[in-house]
């Protein structure tokens, strides 16, 4: 058993396809396949069920792969510990961001990262909350920008800032004539909302105590916030947007924005890591840069705001 074999096993588990896993590892498919087969022969068990498409781990293979990922994470941590002791902002950073945060936050922070973290190779991926937490635990990513506490064993998080929810109302809606949105006036049948599993949706539904969302006349599964905004602009219904999106709106688009009446719902934007993550100084530096990218008014919970 050697490190190379473990890396091949982790890659095959990630891609569930020999050719894709081999390409990721920069080796030929026969090489990767042979090395994994030799490991299976050494262990005396099959790690993958090759009769299935896509390939799946066997029951014992899944247990072995979990340990393989932990071993690779610990090995990769050695270099991170050295970099941390050098107080070096170099190396590679894999960070995940929620799809409801990325479009409005990344344009603000990427220029800052480019200037202040020039020696760091940053890879950004959009993932929903549950996938962010799983990827952190597996070591697939180093950090995640999420919109709730990371209440998962083995993880921790830091508060970055607070962000309000805002209504985006078409000119054909009665609410367009109002200056604020009251939760009792929100018609669930007129809403365009993200699918279940997005914390942006879940927090709003909970705050507004909305029911009957599944009864909307026109269903739109898998829709994005940007797609729903275009529907509202065409005169179709209501949706919600995060506060940071305001800066990207034109004058005519801003005319469709309506704040909530007090208490105004907000979400916590947090930076999550594994509890055993070694590059604490890098985490602190990144958190400070993220806070600097948003208005200072968002750093604290304001009067009239309430966590959704």
UniProtKB/TrEMBL annotation:
The keyword Transcription regulation applies. It comes from Porphyromonas loveana. CDD domains: PBP2_OxyR. This is LysR family hydrogen peroxide-inducible transcriptional activator. Residues 1-58 form the HTH lysR-type domain. Keywords: DNA-binding, Transcription, Transcription regulation. Pfam families: HTH_1, LysR_substrate. The lineage of its organism: Bacteria, Pseudomonadati, Bacteroidota, Bacteroidia, Bacteroidales. SUPFAM superfamilies: Periplasmic binding protein-like II, Winged helix' DNA-binding domain. Belongs to the LysR transcriptional regulatory family. One of its GO terms (molecular function) is DNA-binding transcription factor activity. GO terms for cellular component: cytosol.
């Amino acid at each position: 058993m050697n490190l190379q074999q473990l890396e091949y096993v982790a890659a095959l588990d990630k891609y569930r396809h020999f050719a894709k896993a081999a390409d990721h590892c920069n080796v030929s498919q026969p090489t990767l396949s042979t090395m994994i087969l030799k490991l299976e022969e050494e262990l005396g068990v099959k790690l993958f069920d090759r009769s299935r498409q896509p390939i799946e781990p066997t029951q014992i293979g899944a247990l072995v792969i979990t340990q393989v990922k932990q071993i690779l994470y610990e090995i990769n941590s050695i270099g991170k510990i050295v970099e941390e002791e050098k107080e070096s902002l170099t190396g590679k950073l894999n960070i995940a961001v929620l799809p409801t945060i990325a479009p409005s936050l990344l344009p603000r922070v990427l220029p800052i990262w480019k200037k202040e973290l020039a020696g760091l190779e940053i890879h950004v991926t959009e993932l929903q909350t549950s996938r962010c937490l799983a990827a952190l635990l597996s070591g697939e990513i180093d950090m995640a920008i999420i919109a709730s506490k990371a209440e998962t064993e083995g993880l921790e998080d830091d508060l970055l800032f607070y962000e309000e929810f805002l209504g985006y109302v078409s000119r054909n809606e009665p609410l367009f004539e109002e200056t604020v949105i009251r939760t009792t006036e929100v018609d669930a049948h007129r809403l365009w909302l993200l699918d279940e599993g997005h914390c942006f949706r879940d927090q709003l539904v909970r705050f507004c105590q909305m029911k009957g969302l599944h009864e909307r006349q026109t269903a739109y599964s898998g829709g994005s916030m940007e797609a729903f905004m275009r529907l509202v602009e065409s005169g179709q219904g209501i949706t919600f947007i995060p506060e940071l999106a305001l800066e990207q709106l034109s004058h005519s688009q801003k005319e469709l924005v309506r704040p909530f009446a007090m208490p105004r719902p907000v979400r916590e934007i947090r930076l999550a890591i594994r509890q055993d993550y070694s590059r604490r100084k890098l985490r602190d530096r990144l958190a400070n840069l993220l806070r600097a990218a948003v208005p200072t008014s968002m750093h604290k919970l304001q009067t009239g705001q309430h966590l959704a």
